[in-house]
Design goal:
ten-stranded antiparallel beta sheet, about 180 residues, mainly beta, about 10% helix, Immunoglobulin-like, 12 strands, disordered N terminus, 2 helices
Length: about 180
Amino acid sequence: MKFPTYLLISSALLFPPYLCAQDSGRSRVDQVSQSFSGLRVTPFNVEVGGLGGMEVRVVLKLENVTAERGSAQEVAVAAAGGGPSALTSQTARASLSSGTGDFYVVTETLGLPFGKNADDWLIIKPGGSVPVSFGFMKTDANIRGPFNFSAELVVFRFDKQKKESFQVYFPSLHLR
């Protein structure tokens, strides 16, 4: 059965795209990605383990999507961190809380440097992707999700020769 063209056009105008969207074959995780300056950040996994089950690890997929924008170039990314001095180990600016109001303390960042000097950046080639993780600790083993995760990342834009920071926020992440 063929629909008249005016019906198709008017339905497209009446219904926003998210109401008419079809499954693109992407997982639910891909649909909550956030992008900034050619970097796409996607939550990949949330897992519990370590020290008596008191650690939560959030794994992110960092992907260089500059080619999708027509200007394929390397992306440099680092964790925004804080600490008493440059001589001590830094702590990532990240947070994790549960829907029940529990807060977790960030303990480590794996695969993502802090950008303290020119050699301390994660370089991702166009089309490439890299997993990184943030570890969090709770004082008891009563860990319940879903989790709200946020982290501050820094991207170095080679075309503009400047650093830009941005905050990713992923609410309602579930354990796998």
